[in-house]
User: What shape does this take?
Amino acid sequence: MTIVLIDNQEIILRGAESIIQTAFPAAHYLCFTSLEKGVKQIEEAECQLLVMEVYWPQVNARSLIQQVLALKPNLPVVVFSGRPEKIYAKWILQSGARGFVSKHCPLIELVTCIQTVLKGEHYLSQLLLNQLTQDFLHKRTSNPFEKLSAREMEICHFLLEGHYVSEIASIMKLHASTIGTHQHRILKKLGVQRVSEIRGLAELYM
Assistant: This one.
């Protein structure tokens, strides 16, 4: 079994590789700190699992996952990210990943996720399962970011990163007016007036 790991931080990449090796010692590991080289490896060679960070400068996370799955539709993708799980996990899973693990969790959870995904199942952390259960039982949406559509969540991510409308339009290859319209809807759905307030709201769910 070949496992490809892609992350922009060498120390995290090697730490992830080390802990995964304890559960899968016979696997072959290919590690990349370059997103371009990692995706090229997936395109040109066979692998049975991809563990990656999807948040890179000037990169559309949802499109990145879809790009990988367009190359290898059956490839299990696990996102290992520093982004807050309560905000991003559901959106990432809806984009096609099989599992999401926060870098703030114990590394052993990454192993549990991989074991689950390799069985052909999706992985939800206990934190996310508890959140979804409470929301279902009380018929509520406790996380305001869940009101956003997939496209709005993409744009919201770039707003949280500090990008201007024109920059987001360039990254997503859309007209600035389209991004502006989505930004207006995002503010309305989240019940805020300014982008700075979105950042304050996001901090409550980190």
Notes: The chain has a mean pLDDT of 87. The CA atoms of residues 158 and 164 lie 8 Å apart. Strands lie at 2-6, 28-32, 49-52, 77-81, 99-102. The chain is about 55% helix and 10% strand.
